[in-house]
Write a structure and sequence with these properties.
6-stranded antiparallel β-sheet; Thiol Ester Dehydrase, Chain A; alpha+beta
Length: 134
Amino acid sequence: MLKENASLEEAQDFFKGDVFAYEATGCRLVEVSEGHAVSELVLDKTRHFNAMGGVMGGAIFTLADYALAAACNYNNKPTVSVSNTIEFISAAKGSKLIATCEADKSGRSLGFYTVEVADDTGRKVAKMTATCFR
């Protein structure tokens, strides 16, 4: 469990435990506070792209989910998502994706979050909404 008011470095170390997102996909946590997190993914043609030449939807979702995990678990009881909806807005054109998660409402039992994913050119790529349970 992540300790209360952990530093960014402590949170980064803790979320390395999300092995699929961190090891297999390459997601990195770059900012975290209560109800807020930013994660990044440097795109790799050999790992993140689909047969059509675009970034795989699963890679985009994984990055969004990684930011969500950090935002909803920082200074909170252990929290898991119970419902997620993602809308893919446009194709990524940059070399990196950035997911920014914000709490819409963080209650005792339920939390509601929005994650926006953009590429490093500023292009909006996806938007995910999530309901989480504590």
